[in-house]
Input
Amino acid sequence: MVSLLRNQKVRNALLQVLYVGLLAALVLAGVVIARRNLAEQGITSGFDFLYKSTGWDVNFSLLPATANDPYWWFFLIGIINTLFLGTVGLMLATLVGTIVGLARTSSNELARLLGRTYVDIFRNIPLILQVFFWYAIITHLPTPRAAHEAWGMLLTSRGLYVPVPNVGGIAFAAAILAVISAIALPLWLGRTSRLSQPFGERLGIQLAAAATALATAAVILALGRLPDGPMLDFPTLRGLNLQGGLRIPPEFSALAIAIAIYGGSYIAEIVRGGFKAVGKGQMEAALSLGLSPWRVFTLVRLPLALRAMLPILANQYVWLMKATTMGIAVGFTDFFMIVALTINHSGQTLEVIGILMAGFLAINLSLAAIFNRINKAIALKGNQLRG
Amino acid sequence: MNSSKVSGPAVRIENLDKYYGTFHALRKVNLSVERGERIVVCGPSGSGKSTMIRCINRLEEHNGGRITVLGTELDDDVANIDGIRREVGMVFQHFNLFPHMTVLDNCMIAPMIVRKLPRAEAEATARRYLEKVRIPEQAMKFPGQLSGGQQQRVAIARALCMQPQIMLFDEPTSALDPEMISEVLDVMVTLAADGMTMICVTHEMGFARRVADRVVFMDGGEIVEEAPPEEFFTSCRNERTRQFLSQVLGH
Amino acid sequence: MEMVVVAPPAPGKIEDLKRRFFATPLQALLSLISLAVMAFIAWKLLNWAVFSAVFTTSGGPEACQAAAGACWSVIAARWRIILFGLYPFDEQWRSALACVTVVVMTVLSCLPAFWTGRRIALVWGAGTALYYVLMKGGVLGLPQVGEEAWGGLALTLFIFVTTCLIGFPLAICLALLRRSELPWISRTTALIIDGVRSLPLISILFTFAIVLPFALPQWLVGDKLYRVILGSALFFSAYQAEIVRGGMQGVPAGQEEAAMALGMSYWQRIGRILLPQAMRNALPATINQFVISFKETSLVVIVGFFEILASGNAAYGTGEWRFAYVEVYAFIAFIYFVFVFSLSRYGAFLERRMSVGER
Output
């Protein structure tokens, strides 16, 4: 027996069995105990509850939602809310980050100082504190009766009211798609190898494509216009309340602003790192070819820097998506808050935790897949020495 | 393990087989090394010579055949592996000194924690061997502050501090600048003169001629030729050996 | 060290400024815009925070609200609740002393003299024990104060310190398990690490605080505070494990081979050869992880702890100081900033020093 334990192979097998077995036993014991405890409270395990109506409402939804809707519908709403907030936050943060990052790499000392101050301040204050801060600011804005007005928007403690086109939901979504393709199409055309025309002609084709897509969007909006009311629906004060326009609730704006500012400070550092990674040799080579500084930037520096940034940026975006869970701090019904509310109301703890994990796994994996595709598409072909 | 009292060869390798995945790195290798014998192993790169000596102290696990070191068979028994490693010292191509310790600590750590020697005794041993490899004055420096040749001599001293009965050398001079090779070879010659059992993988044919009792030539995972140096260099029988020798000596 | 720089004939101040900020029209424009933005923000900020601000409590909240600038009186009136939460008033010196302990501990661990496994463990072990005795009391004539009364900055620091204290050894274990040669051990560990990393921290804190009691036998449930600390430590360790593993990958394979050839056992190789080198490689990333972890400690407010954010909310949330939320948040932000900024500056300094030292 003792000599058997001294055998390396036996030892290794035993260690593995022990380790995996112990972990499995722990998880299993937890599940068994939880099921017993829940059963004592009269909660039957299983996923039947998904089809029951919730009996509570959500305060933010892009899809129609009432208290009569079933749980699965609410989970869907939660996921969409998370993705929506995440995408908006991610775009804003990228915008902020790019501006600040460019300021940090600029040749101007004052601009660099400004960028650096921004990063140093907002990176070093926890995101949730910034969320609380903006939420407090927004909810302390004047009441609707005394609302601030700017460019047809109303700033109130009940949220931000913005004018919206007076069109049906499907037409609106289609128009948004058309606008997105107005940006994406020229980019795609620029990349396909079939277009071997000289630079000028290619630009013409790209512009034409963008114009066509934008025109399509305009047509869709005109066709989808609702019969009554003007083309643009402005928010206005009627009595004590506001009517018309689109209300962006304070929860959403506070989160979006905080994510944009905090995430922006991180993305700024990524942008700076990306530009720093571009070798001096490549820039000198480009300049020695007689390219103008602007051309050097757009044709050499930017594309190379983007390639260096992308993998780190992907991680940052995954992080930003997860940061939407702070919604629960101010009562924004993101996926996680729906999960927490469901556990509170239905008691289906184990199943809901499973759904939570599956949901985030799916979000992470799909983001990773998207970024892998992009990375592959833009990766430099073949092996080359990096300077 | 009172192996010093056990009679028989220091190392006996019988029908040794080693695979890396599907690659057959060692094919039925047989070699026996007597106590006090000095063996030089040579051969083209990828011939399996390093793999063979790394099997002797189980840095690589063999897949077939038997290895017996100082009368103990190297098998899956953990105690046997530990015992053999204590008695077999090794010097690597890239020195592998511990960069976060001083030269002295490099030499003292194994005797202290493996052989459980008291600190004073370990230090005395370490200083004695540093003297032997002719760098006592570098004891308090860190490996990164030494030249390649000095580092390799420290590595030899470190292995000797465990007072091994067998020393393995895995291309000890291949990573050195030419002017530093001789200082390392000189130390190895002294060691050979002291009667240490040595198995050296090296391309230094001058060293082989001077110290080796036997030269072993390997190619394609097999031992192709095995002979005393004068015979090996003058009248080798195998075509592959001749070709190799002409490449090593031919310029 | 004295540096003697032979300067070229110094150009006039004006020319120097011109060269640095107004070399080209574009540069001049950029400089002017940056300067305008900075001046605007600085003026607004100074005006609000200093010139028109009220610093004393003498006028009460009303005088403060009427002022055009910041109302720092709220801090003067409520700093105790922000820093110490609901800790008994007469015992708050203990809470303050406990905070100082943590700061001293952090500073000590930044000194290279303490960078051996044993010393750092000693500093953190003793520091945490001292903190616990001070806060909890019940010995040495100190009245006992239960964990439910801990709050404010003191609680934030406690959660952070215990998270690191538990999470760090756990991270090393996870890293070692993940790089194990035994396939089932390394795969299972990889599953755990990647699983935890794919989840947001809030969901883990929530699970440990609210869901875990269902899945534990009665005698194991324990205080919610310690469950949350465990959850936070698990999260920390999953990230830190990857950092430590990265550090281990930076140690050449020859190091372990040499140790094996000298007859060292697995634990001797890990403890004496691998870890000291791996931790050195991983130091900058580790400090960065500490910084992130300190910021994330603030998330425990969501599972209902009275840490510094919650106590800040309470400081302005009720009655007379309701209007002074910006000041309270600014104060808390400043506290965080001091901790986080100095730690991350230190990390950047180390990184520079190490990259120079390698040459």
Summary: Chain C has 14 helices and no strands. The radius of gyration of chain C is 26 Å. The interface with chain B takes residues 252, 254-255, 257-265, 268, 272-273, 276-277, 280 of chain C (CB under 8 Å). The CA atoms of residues 213 and 220 of chain C lie 8 Å apart.
